[in-house]
Design a protein that fits this description.
It is built from 17 helices and 19 strands. The chain has about 500 residues and is an alpha/beta fold.
């Protein structure tokens, strides 16, 4: 499996990359059942490049989190030496950025060059790369020379055997460790026969491992069929997609397990690792197959959360116990963590602070409190300087107050959050209230709120006078014409822009 600390692709059986399926629970389940290597679902480089690497101490995972807080990729120590990160890319530089972002947490990086679906081919990714060998070579060379882990790719066959062999030979020269070959043209689908002869010819034409793919259903139904598929294609290794999706115990050498047991074990992993409920439901529906309209299938389809899915499978107690364990772990981590201490970085005072909007009342922010404090102390208004790093487009702000600089050592997803984090650092170092929920009244009421109170009182008095005037007018008028409401003439006074 491992050659000099690097993942080997010779004589292995792998879980193929599958969108919505190849998340952490399915990968761990496949490893439990005997898979040697597991691929994650294809993840697009543009989205991954914006992610931040976060160590999740509650789940014991490493998460790559998008600016919108969505976890794009989650992995853990259990699979670190076995998981291959597959990306969709059409740009060498962007591919390298993503590969470097994940290379310490995965065993290898793979480039998808075979998916024929529109979500993959748009932008020149996936199977679209097959018509651009120069770009294929540029991407792979950039990755091979730029990262310390193995680089592989997954392709489909070309219209002629000669073209396919030439392409794979050119790919081999880039220095990749292995090539997975799906034995169908990009226009063909699972209902079309697999071209085992193409895979066999490619395997004979190169010296690197070739991984045969596409044999589910017709050629591989049980574990005993895997070796036969390997011999039929002449490949070094085998990669399974649909056969594993339907029943991941296809990797068990002693024979398949009942799908009911497989579903339960999968769901336990999904609960344990807080898997996205949509992905969880999708995978379970794929395992149900023709029973998706059964009472269980209908209950599953109606479920919207992992809690509801757990109820469908009778795992409510396990779900509740797991949630309690995670809550306890979260509380313990929070209580044991030491308060952040200021650290000098040159002439800047820094602290590891993240701005959490939910910790503050609506329309109240640390920047407001810092501004009010500077006015009260008759010092110059806070001055913010912003920087952005290219790796993930994160932002970091430095605020200058009374001639001293303050900054959070953490990067934020937006300019506004970066400025708020800098303000929090300044306020905490100076020992000034920052306006958090539950904080005692400080007297540092933001100007907007203060103006709002004043304007509100004045407006109430004006409204009362208008109301009395209207009543008097109605009493003296002899005409039966209804009085015209004058509320639309009362214009709300403008308030300062929220900081």
């Amino acid at each position: 499996m491992m050659a000099a600390g690097r993942l080997s692709f010779s004589n292995i059986t792998a879980l193929a990359p599958m969108v919505r399926v190849g998340t952490l629970p399915m990968r761990l389940l496949a490893l439990d059942y005997g898979a040697d290597v597991v691929y994650c679902e294809e993840l697009i480089d543009i989205k991954m490049a914006k992610c931040q690497r976060v160590v999740n101490e509650v789940l014991h995972t490493v998460d790559f989190v998008a600016p919108d807080e969505r976890v794009m990729f989650r992995t853990c120590e259990r699979e670190k030496d076995r998981v291959v990160f597959q990306m969709g890319t059409a740009d060498p530089d962007r591919a390298l950025t993503v590969a470097r972002l994940v290379e310490k947490d995965v065993a290898a990086v793979d480039v998808n060059m075979g998916c024929p679906k529109e979500y993959s081919t748009k932008g020149g990714m996936g199977a679209a790369l097959l018509s651009d060998p120069d770009k294929i070579e540029a991407i792979l060379r950039k990755l091979v020379t730029g990262v310390s882990i193995p680089v592989t790719c997954k392709i489909r066959i070309l219209p002629s055997l000669e073209e396919t062999i030439r392409l794979v030979q050119r790919i081999e020269k880039t220095g990749v460790t292995a090539v997975a070959v799906h034995g169908r043209l990009k226009e063909e689908r699972p209902r079309h026969p697999l071209h085992c002869d193409y895979i066999q010819a490619v395997a004979q034409a190169v010296s690197i491992p070739i991984i045969a793919n596409g044999g589910s259903l017709d050629l591989v139904k049980t574990n005993a069929d895997i070796e036969e598929f390997r011999r039929a294609t002449g490949a070094s290794s085998v990669m399974l997609a649909r056969a594993a999706m339907w029943n991941a115990s296809v990797f068990v050498s002693q024979g398949p397990l009942p799908v009911e047991r497989v579903m339960e074990e999968y769901l336990r992993y999904a609960i344990r690792y807080d898997n996205n409920a949509f992905n969880t439901k999708y995978c379970l529906c794929q395992m149900l197959r023709d029973k998706v309209e059964s009472p269980l299938g209908k209950q599953l389809q109606a479920a919207q959360t992992n809690a509801e899915i757990s109820e469908a499978y009778g795992l409510q107690e396990f779900y509740q116990q797991t949630q309690e364990q995670l809550r306890t772990r979260r509380d313990t981590l929070q209580s044991s963590s030491q308060p952040d201490r200021p650290v000098m970085d040159g002439d800047v005072t820094t602290m590891a602070v993240k701005f959490e909007r939910r910790e503050y009342p609506p329309q109240i922010t640390p920047k407001m409190f810092l501004l009010e404090w500077s006015r009260k102390e008759k010092v110059e208004q806070p001055l913010y300087e912003m920087v952005q790093r290219s790796q993930d487009r994160g932002f970091q702000s430095t605020v200058t107050v009374a001639g001293k600089k303050y900054r959070s050592s953490l990067w934020e997803k937006s300019k506004k959050f970066a400025e708020q984090a800098a303000a929090v650092v300044c306020l905490r170092v100076l020992g000034i209230p920052e306006g958090r929920l539950g904080e005692e009244e400080s007297g540092l009421v933001c100007k907007r709120k203060r103006d709002g109170k004043t304007n509100g009182t004045a407006e109430q008095e004006r409204s009362k006078k208008r109301h009395l005037s209207t009543e008097n007018q109605q009493e003296t008028e002899t005409s039966k014409t209804p009085a015209v409401a004058n509320g639309d003439r009362c214009k709300a006074e403008t308030t300062p822009e929220q900081l």
